[in-house]
Design brief:
alpha+beta, 4-stranded antiparallel β-sheet, Alpha-Beta Plaits, 3 helices
Length: 99
């Protein structure tokens, strides 16, 4: 196994385990919650080093935080950046087992 840089753990925060992410995993795609400052090349490098796989492409999206009301207190949820990582054929990541 290759040596990992501690910075990679700052880029990839956690896997996203939702119904949509599970359906995407059937098409060789994995979703991760990533740092807001992370770029596509940084995400690609981090996934390749941490999981020892070959990445085909990276798509990112930023979900803006909603305004919520709880007991007459208004609050803004944080923005969340997600990365949809498409893997090369023959490579696989099982996010349910963890690192």
């Amino acid at each position: 196994m290759s040596t990992t840089d501690p910075r990679h753990y700052d880029v990839i925060l956690s896997p996203v385990i939702t119904e949509k992410a599970t359906i995407a995993s059937e098409h060789n795609k994995v979703m991760f919650k990533v740092a807001g400052h992370a770029t596509k090349p940084q995400i690609k490098e981090a996934v390749e080093k941490l999981f020892d796989v070959k990445v085909k492409s990276v798509n990112t999206l930023t979900r803006r935080g909603k305004m919520k009301v709880f007991k007459n207190t208004r609050a803004q949820r944080s923005d969340v950046k997600r990365a949809i990582v498409t893997l090369e054929e023959g490579h696989k990541i099982d996010v349910t087992t963890g690192l």
